[in-house]
């Protein structure tokens, strides 16, 4: 194979694999931004991890308890905006505002989170 052929195949490989990873990571179209959710509940579990942090939040809706998986921002952004790992500890009360996932029941993407009176914008 010629040097030009190897170059073209290399570029094609990176374009295809890069586009796939980008699409998989930033699938925000999976969340319905026409329906805003606003919950206050107790953090049961949290992850301060890449590509996005999360909390499992126990909330009471219409008299019954429900557990939501709340997708947060990347840790570096949360850290820059003052939302530390320690603030997401289980047992803390959190209020989240965001959008429900279109197909994954009980999952939402948070736009902001309030803990201990401090609101952090995540987007």
Beta percentage is: 35-45%
Based on secondary structure, the structural category is alpha+beta
Shape: globular
List segments where confidence is low: pLDDT < 50 over at least 5 consecutive residues: 13-24
- Termini, distance in Å? 46 Å
The average pLDDT score comes to: 86
Radius of gyration: 19 Å
Share of helical residues: 10-25%
Write the SSE topology.
Blueprint: H1 3-25, E1 37-47, E2 54-61, E3 64-71, H2 75-80, E4 93-100, E5 107-115, E6 118-121
Parallel strand pairs: 3-5
Antiparallel strand pairs: 1-2, 1-4, 2-3, 4-5, 5-6
General description of the model:
With 123 residues, the protein is of the alpha+beta class. The protein has two helices and six strands. The protein has a five-stranded mixed β-barrel with strand order 1-2-3-5-4. A hairpin with a 6-residue loop joins strand 4 and strand 5. The longest helix has 23 residues. The termini are far apart.
Compact summary:
By secondary structure, the protein is an alpha+beta fold. The protein has two helices and six strands, in the order αβββαβββ.
List keywords for this structure.
123 residues; five-stranded mixed β-barrel; 39% strand; globular; alpha+beta
